[in-house]
Amino acid sequence: MDRMVPVPSNAIVPERDLGRPPILETHHLGIDFGGLTAVDELSLTVGRTEIAGLIGPNGAGKTTVFNLLTNVYQPTRGAIMLDGKSTAKKTTAQVNRMGIARTFQNIRLFSNMSVLDNVKVGLHNSIHQNLAASVTHLFGYKKSEKKSREEALELLSFFHMEDLANKRAGSLPYGAQRRLEIVRALATHPGIILLDEPAAGMNPSETAELMENIRKIRDTFQIAVMLIEHDMNLVMNICEGICVLDHGKVIAKGTPEEIKSNPVVIEAYLGKKKGADEECSE
Amino acid sequence: MEKIKNLNKFTRTNIRAYGLIILAFIVLFPLQSTGIISNSISGQLVPICTYIVMAISLNLTVGFLGELSLGHAGFMSVGAFTGVITAICLQEVIPSAALRLLIAIIAGGIAAGVAGFLIGIPVLRLRGDYLAIVTLAFGEIIKNIINCLYVGVDSNGLHMSMTNAEALGMINGKLIINGPQGAVGITKIASFTAGILLILFALFIILNLVNSKSGRAVTAIRDNRIAAESVGISVTRYKLTAFIISAVLAGMAGALYAMNFSTIAAKKFDFNTSILILVFVVLGGMGNIVGSIVATALLYILPELLREYADYRMLIYAIVLILVMLLTNSEKAKQMRERFVYKWKKRLRKNNDQQEGLKNG
Description:
The structure holds two protein chains of two kinds.
Chain A: E1 24-33, E2 36-46, E3 51-55, H1 62-69, E4 77-82, E5 85-86, H2 92-98, E6 100-102, H3 115-122, H4 131-136, H5 141-158, H6 174-186, E7 192-196, H7 204-221, E8 224-228, H8 232-238, E9 241-246, E10 249-254, H9 256-260, H10 263-270, H11 273-281
Parallel strand pairs in A: 3-8, 3-9, 6-7, 7-8
Antiparallel strand pairs in A: 1-2, 1-4, 4-5, 9-10
Helix pairs in contact in A: 3-5, 3-6
Chain B: H1 2-6, H2 9-33, H3 39-42, H4 45-64, H5 72-89, H6 97-123, H7 129-147, E1 150-154, E2 157-161, E3 174-178, H8 192-210, H9 213-223, H10 225-230, H11 235-258, H12 271-284, H13 289-305, H14 313-329, H15 331-360
Antiparallel strand pairs in B: 1-2, 1-3
Helix pairs in contact in B: 2-8, 4-8, 4-11, 4-12, 4-13, 5-6, 5-7, 5-11, 6-11, 8-11, 9-11, 12-13
């Protein structure tokens, strides 16, 4: 079972981030659900402004990794360092405040609230408004609301969504809901944003637009992006470092070119060549 | 008309809610003071006001926070008895009835708030059915504790006992809460005006809260708890905040309610009362404050109005409940209502145009 491919320890960090400490590191991360080991020995490094990809066949444990990084699950083994600080024993909300934002595979918007309010909820921790101001609408309420409204609209305009601000979030078309989720995550001012299958259900032109947007997010906000995606075209085009998971273990790490030609990865996705031949001959 | 349309939703709801209450006051106050409306209805005005406050505050928990609470009458009870004790203790010190009422209401609110905090910490870790069951138990526990509580006051201060009135050991004291008989010897100091002011206060708190950072956090938790956590919202904190605010308002309403009667017993605030308030909230529409007000007023007055048809009273009440439920919740009824409103608006516009035409011609 020794399928690990030896790769240089920081091959995944692009050159421009080399001099700076990574935004995210995991050391021998693992989690068991009862007797089942869902993720094991996961050691990753993501650079300050890197676009990293996490790929693997269905059930490889990719979303579990995201849930571990955001402390939805507490890891059984190993450590997560975010910007040099350990996230152990923190709640999901606290980890977000430390600088990780995420989107979900099955969209999770506040669907009964307006688009603008969804983004304002994302801005929650950067709005300075105490409970007294909330209840009385005095003590700087107007100022803080105005500021949050302006900031929310600015973020929405980034994705050309400012016209939809007063629509109910649940009534938006699918693609717009996905974009809104990203805007809401960006509103928390993260250092790294985790995107769980951002291109799922999108047509090729929407996917192309998404790729542009992901690059734009990285360039404008100077943050790292880590994404789970099944669309290999998207992954190979925009990711600088890729990590391949299979059965909860890292089977390969490297640049898109290295991953494309890696026999172990091809085997994990398509099965053994020999087996395929046998099937054909039957 | 155009101006109202252009205002945002928040301002529109505000105008409707405050307007409705102020209008009710303007219409009912002269009728009550001149004695035109019957005594039985007039006596119901303060209870209606308190139940409106109860419904609005429960709407915060059920409609905005999205947690089913079946023990809201428990907070009302805590507020009521704290209010009564405060008012009776201050009878000699503060001669002004209005000021005494105000202090009693505030004391009731604080006591219920503390109860809300204590019950909220363990309860809000639960979800859905479990939370409903525990709040139900809370209401019953409060009822049973007050049922065997004896409180009296004399020159030495407040005395409390759980066994009987003699155990208080008072000299020439005054008994305030007499076990199962409840609070006795209350001076009726509640008034319709106080009731309206309390509703306005509750509206102010809740409508403001809903449109603020804290209110958005509460609604976000209702819509999607996991997503709310993922954007850095502390779920426990905001659940507790909403729960306590709801309890404080219920306590205030309870204090006002108690001051409207000369005696009040703990069994008044039982499970049925909690359910009654929940019925008002559900029928008025969850998260719909104006709906809560209208539903409470209608459903509270209805049994009174039907008193002459005593035999059919509860039958008609039940039918009305079902009709309201159908009309507010079914898709067909909604479409029908929308069509009707659309036609009506069209006709109105036509009439206006014709009138304008006449003027111009």
